[in-house]
Amino acid sequence: MSTLNFFKLPDVGEGLLEAEIVTWKVKLGDIVAVNDVLVEIETAKSLVELPSPYAGVVAQLMVTEGETVDVGTPIIAIGSEVTGAAAAPAPASPAPVAAEPEAEVLKPLVGSGPKADAVKRRPRISSPSAAPTRAAGPNQSAPVTPAPSAVAPAPAPAVQPVVPTSAAAAAAKAPGQDPASNLITNAAATVSRMVAHANRVLAKPPVRKAAKDMGIDLSEVSATGLRGEVTKKDLLSYQDQRTAEHDGAGTFWAPATGTGLEDDPRIERIKVKGVRKATAKAMVESAFSAPHVSIFVDVDASRTMEFVKRLKVSRDFEGIKVSPLLILAKAVIWAAARNPSVNATWTGDEIIIKHFMNLGIAAATPRGLMVPNIKDAQNLSLKELAIALNALATTARAGKTPPADMRGGSLTVTNIGALGIDTGTPIINPGEVAIVAFGTIKQKPWVLDGEVIPRWITTLGGSFDHRVVDGDLSARFMADVAAIMEEPALLLD
Amino acid sequence: MGAAQQADTGTSGSGAPASPRPQAGNQAGNPPAGSQAPSSAGNSAGVLRNAGVGPDEAVQLLDEHGATHHDATFSSYIEKLDPDVLRGFYRDMATVRRFDTEATALQRQGELALWVPVIGQEAAQIGSGSAMNKADYAFPTYREHGVALTRGLDLADLLKLFRGVTNGGWDPRETNFHLYTLVLAAQTLHAVGYAMGISRDLVADPTTEPAAVVAYFGDGASSEGDVHESMVFAASYDAPVVFFCQNNNWAISVPFEVQSKIPLVNRAAGYGMPGIRVDGNDVLAVYAVTQWALDHARSGHGPVFIEASTYRVGAHTTADDPTKYRMNAEEELWKTRDPLARLETYLRAENLADDAFFEQVKNDGDELAAHVRRTTLALGSADIRHKFATVYAEAHPLVAEELAWFENYEASFADVDTENAQGGAA
Question: Can you give the pTM of this predicted structure?
Answer without folding.
Answer: 0.55
